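If you are new to this repository, start here. Below is one unmodified record pulled from the training split, so you can see the exact layout before writing a loader.
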Amino acid sequence: MSGDAAGLNEDLTQFARIDTNAVDWQPSPSPSVFRKRLDLAGDKEASRVTSVVRYEPDSVFHSHPHPDGEEILVLDGVFSDEHGDYPAGTFLLNPEGFDHAPRSKEGCILFVKLRQYPGERRQLTVDTSKGSWRQGLVEGIDVQDLYREDGHPEHIRLARFAPGAATPEHLHAGGEEIYVIEGSVEDEFGVHPAGTWVRYPDGSRHTASSPQGALLYVKSGHLP
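And here is the target side for that same chain:
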């Protein structure tokens, strides 16, 4: 995957999987910020894209807007901008019209989605270390809801698998994306260790399990 890749996993109707542990960091417009692209529509910096992003210590990025919004999950370190400091576990949804100058004093790693939130939405900052959990599909799988809003299709949440937990086979109406934050999860498509991103298209099915336990970012209902 090169730094000037033109299109990557662009077709949202297709299954896609990337183990980011096996992908090299690529440069960004800032010399101290690097990224691993997971999906990319086209070859422009202003395209729809999903990435893992690394800020080196004392990194700064120029002030910029976010047409069609931005989503950030802080995976490690502390991410900052002029609006605040966001430690690991913070979830941010910045809507259309939001602009900021991001930085990181100590360095950080982020899961980032750009240009995927057209229309009016509320700005959201969630400290998941203080969030509440509810039982998910079955006992042993707990869910912390991050974003769900009338009039918009996506449901974003964390899913926590206890060791040995498994889902029944289920349909992905509207599709689903996961990013494995901790542990490992497996299904008919393989074993997905921490750092793996998987996209299941609309209408797909699977059965997910985690022999050792796992923590996942999950987004569903947003794929055509």
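Two things worth knowing about this chain: The chain has two domains: 16-127, 132-220. The mean pLDDT is 93.
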